[in-house]
Amino acid sequence: MNTFINIVVQGVLLGALYGLFAMGQSLVFGVMRLTNTAHGDFIVLLVFVLFALTNYAHLPLAVSLVLLLVIAFGAGYAVQYTILNRVSSRDPLPSLIVTFGLSIVIQNVLQQVFSADPRSIATGSFESQSLTLAGGITLGYLPLVTLVVTTALAFAMQWLFGRTPLGRAFRATSDDREIVQLMGVSYRRTYALAMGIAFVLIGVAAALYSMRTAVSPTDGPALLLYAFEAVIIGGMGSFWGTFVGGMALGIAQQVGFYFDPGWGIWLGHVVFLGVLVARPQGLLPKTA
User: What is the pTM assigned to this prediction?
Assistant: First the structure.
């Protein structure tokens, strides 16, 4: 029984990280219907920005984290306003091609600047500290922080979309951007704001992920896959669905790891395919 509980607990903690990976992707698709194939590479890019701030600029970690989020928002706004707005349309192919090109550029630039060596963010010994509960169940402090942060962001994003004027503008633009323009709202600025917020979410994910493990410039496609699977499992456009999708993916992987180290990632893919076949709209489709 303790083994089963431990598998579920560790799966939830891992799933919180996957849900955080996917939250920015869920926002981008929910507002702009944009399939961002560079999402994982944006996470890696912000990891290396944080690494540069802490190791090359020698800024304290707390200051670097705040500065990272500011840089992330500005970068997201600029990328959307100057590049992606030009290819935002009902046809997904142009955005797929452009973001795929951005993915290749990011990977090669990072390898040229930082080499192919994996890098991580030093946090003292915090990443290895843990709490042991009855029955031998161990909870790492960093995974617990990730769970709390992911839960808080899911609450915040659901509140933003459901209870604020900006959220109403996002939802209206998502439904019909031409009508929104007639009402005096610029869909280009709305899209840029959405991408800026998505990049802040990506920045949070990058910071927590880089504290947990070493990251290399070519890790982006794998992170994109986890984010994409969490979004599909949970349901497009639903932040709580994304949260639940990440949990389901994390628990499935932990079950696979229990039986064989090589089965973890594979079983997560199997669960994704099973949900896609049995319930293509996801577990928790788009909410108000």
Answer: 0.93
